[in-house]
Design brief:
Strand content: 25-35%
Helix content: 25-40%
Order of helices and strands: EEEEEHEEEEEEEEEHHH
Radius of gyration: 43 Å
Shape: rod-shaped
CATH architecture of the largest domain: Sandwich
Strand order of the largest sheet: 8-7-11-12-14
CATH topology of the largest domain: Immunoglobulin-like
Number of helices: 4
CATH class of the largest domain: Mainly Beta
Length: 298
């Protein structure tokens, strides 16, 4: 066993090869530095010649098939402009619907407690206990006595303008019943339905008194609940819509863009106009789906 030292012809790095019993022949050794394969010609344990082995493998020629369409840089710029137009348009639609929602929510939140310029509405108040009507009740509105007319069967008639009120109904030997109500603007001469006895929760309110002392709070009417809960929800939905318009404009997430467009519809901006803009944006969103950095490729 003998060691034959050599120098790489390519990088001049020193190396050696160990012969296991052979004294002559042609051997190959890969250079540790440049990884070139070196041919070593040995005779009587002496290095006669060194040279780098050539790689005879032919590289395949790359050729573009003739049926491939030639790339048109101008066409690509036109497509990019088209995509930018739709991105801006859809983002603007979502943003517009959301801003309308913010304006609607703000107007509801700051709605006046009373509409002083509106006509008086005839309000029907029915007072009863668990078994019968009560005909000696005293009604106060916002802690003030008000003129009332009794028309039999526990029905009291008062006149109020549209707005928010606190009703208190009291009778001897009964607890005071308190109800917060909102009377919406309405036509006092409505004739499409039987308006003579009022509409429950709109201009007719029923109080069921309990025996005893103290006070009992009755449930708010539906309109007041809407007035209390809708503005915060509308503002929240609108803010999500604003976020969705930014996500759409920056092409961050197709799924989040859909969520933003959906909530811009739910914001009910200007009642009809905002939802219409949001629906249009939701319909147009698939046109730019592939432009998003993260989307479902299905």
């Amino acid at each position: 066993m003998s060691n034959i030292k050599f120098i790489c012809p390519t990088c001049n790095t020193k190396g050696k090869i160990t012969l296991m019993g052979e004294t002559q022949g042609n051997f190959e050794k890969k250079c540790k530095e440049c990884k070139a394969t070196i041919n070593l010609d040995v005779k009587d344990n002496n290095l006669i010649n060194t040279n780098v082995k050539e790689n005879n493998r032919k590289k395949p020629k790359l050729k573009v098939p003739q049926d491939y369409k030639k790339y048109d840089f101008k066409e690509d710029r036109v497509k990019t402009k088209g995509k930018t137009f739709w991105v801006k348009t859809i983002s603007f639609l979502i943003l517009s619907a959301s801003i309308m929602g913010l304006m609607t929510g703000g107007s509801l939140y700051y709605a006046p407690n009373q509409f002083s310029d509106s006509e008086d509405i005839k309000i029907y108040i029915i007072v009863e206990n668990s078994t019968n009507y009560i005909d000696n009740a005293v009604i106060t509105i916002d802690n003030k006595a008000i003129n009332q007319t009794y028309s039999d069967n526990g029905t009291y008639i008062i006149n109020l303008k549209p707005g928010k009120y606190r009703f208190e109904v009291n009778a001897e030997d009964y607890k005071v019943s308190v109800m917060e109500v909102y009377i919406p603007p309405q036509d006092p001469d409505m004739s499409l339905i039987d308006y003579s006895t009022g509409l429950d929760g709109i201009n007719r309110f029923t109080f069921t008194l309990e025996k005893g002392e103290g006070s009992v709070r009755a449930d708010e009417n539906t309109y007041l609940k809407m007035l209390n809960w809708c503005p915060p929800l509308i503002v929240l939905f609108s803010l999500i819509g604003v976020w969705g318009s930014w996500v759409t404009y920056t092409l961050q997430s197709y799924k989040n863009a859909q969520i933003g467009a959906f909530f811009s519809i739910m914001a009910m901006g200007f009642l009809i106009i905002g939802p219409l803009l949001g629906i249009i944006a939701l319909i147009l969103l698939p046109k730019i789906k592939k432009d998003f950095t993260g989307h479902f490729k299905k």
